[in-house]
Design goal:
The chain is of the alpha/beta class. Helix 3 packs antiparallel against helix 4, helix 5 packs parallel to helix 10 and helix 8 packs across helix 9. The radius of gyration is 19 Å and the shape is globular.
Length: 249
């Protein structure tokens, strides 16, 4: 039995999601690019957009027609990013339980909007903030504090910050120190964020949640989800069992 089903978690009033690597899968090539750009605290998505714009201008200068440029951009998007379908159940469960969701990304707005449109998940978020919307990038808490100020959260509210990078964990910690809310970092096992949370919990007893799978996050939001999925699974063909959790509204 996985971790999200064994433990009791403080239900969030607001969940703030990262985008790249959290709501999307990142390819090996994008991961290698990220390892380079992280040294300059620059998201791989920002570098990708710069390369795409530069290529666009070069193509225009040498007279290549625009439809080929757009096709190249689409290919880059497909290469670097694919939908993480198992995160949809988290968004669906939060929506069903009337939990507000926001998006905070260090990536550029143009990239983020492309991803949201492609995955058709923009409607889940009350607020979306990208690098153009903030004065300081994560892990500085300024943007998150703006989201908290614009959201219906009070002194006793619990806010989850769900990300895959160390910066997302320190974002939650920095915001927690500057906010009246209880801000908790949340991550999936195997990510850099999960490793950081584990180290901080062991050394400094700092609160943070590490889940085995996105489905366990959904079960922490709605403990009854496990029973509903089991009921659906019992009525389904065995070959379709992996789809059961995504059909629960």
């Amino acid at each position: 039995m996985s971790m999200g089903r064994k433990k009791s978690y403080k239900k969030p009033d607001l969940i703030v999601f990262d985008l790249d690597g959290t709501l999307t899968n990142t390819s090996d090539r994008a991961a290698r690019l990220s390892s380079i750009t992280d040294r300059w605290h620059l998201p791989a998505s920002s570098t990708t957009m710069w390369l795409m714009r530069t290529a666009n201008q070069i193509y225009k200068n040498i007279g290549i027609r625009n439809r080929f440029v757009e096709a190249a951009k689409h290919d880059v998007l497909n290469l670097l990013c694919a939908e993480k379908q198992d995160m949809f159940v988290v968004l669906q469960t939060a929506f069903a339980k009337d939990i507000s969701c926001s998006l905070l990304s260090n990536g550029p707005r143009e990239w983020g909007k492309k991803i949201l449109n492609r995955l058709q998940i923009g409607a889940y978020f009350d607020h979306t903030m990208f690098r153009e919307d903030v004065s300081q990038l994560k892990p500085a808490p300024d943007a998150l504090l703006q989201i908290l100020a614009s959201s219906a959260v009070g002194q006793d509210s619990t806010v989850w910050v769900c990300g895959d990078r160390t910066a997302d964990v320190y974002l939650a910690m920095n915001a927690n120190a500057a906010s009246i809310c209880n801000v908790i970092p949340v991550a999936i096992k195997g990510s850099k964020a999960a490793e950081t949370i584990t180290v901080l919990r062991d050394k400094f007893n700092i609160k943070g949640y590490v889940f085995d799978t996105p489905y366990d996050i959904a079960c922490a939001i709605d403990p009854d989800l496990t029973n509903r999925v089991t009921e659906v699974a019992n009525r389904m063909d065995p070959s379709q069992l992996h789809l059961a959790s995504f059909r629960i509204q």
